[in-house]
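EI: anyone free to look at a 243-residue chain?
SC: sure, send it
EI:
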Amino acid sequence: MDVAQRVHLMPVGYENDRIVLSAQRFSADRVVLLAYDDQTPHPSYSETVRERLDGAGIDHETIDCNIFDFYDSLGTIAELATQFADHDVYVNLATGSKVTAIGGMIACMATGATPYYVRAERYAAETDGDVAEGIREVTELPTYPMDHPDPQQVAVMAHLEAEGGVTKRALIDFGEEEGLPFLAEHDAANRKSQYRLLDSHVLSPLAETGYVTITERGRSKRVELTDAGHNTLRAFRYLLDDA
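SC: here you go
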């Protein structure tokens, strides 16, 4: 896609109007459906949506995403928004689960994508089974910039997860091997300077946000990922491509 297009990211829940009609109202060039097979007895909304998008002449693709898992939703939407960063990316917060709506909003704040909410004409009590039918209005929602781990911090978190925790010295060796910016973009006169760079650019920010713990083990300090760190890594692992 050489020309900027209108790309819509849409979770597929238990309805189809607020997906298809929204795509038509926004004149979407491409729709990315986030689908999850929860193996419960309900109509095949994904197939219905795809057929209707085909009928409307709108390009689409389907990506697996657990719309009931916060970190999978956040990570998938943020990764897709980054993938289509050269285009106008919109995220439909109305069509998945409440979890997906929250994760999608945070993903928009992290990436600059535009979130919107679709108010239906009719809701479950008035429909033949869908959660909602028709469209009454579409509202673009405001976002505010938010901080998230930078790529080198995510790389360190991934290394900590893979190794089950390591010493600061081992993290410096890892940083040298991978050419991470905290060392590659600074002149460290000695090992002590390397420790300061590791702390200021990587470990202090991660410790302040509760993503890692640092404990003394004899003469060394061991760094380990916390539960919050594991979950944050799930959401932002896609940034490893930029590390």
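EI: The longest helix spans residues 191-208.
SC: 👍
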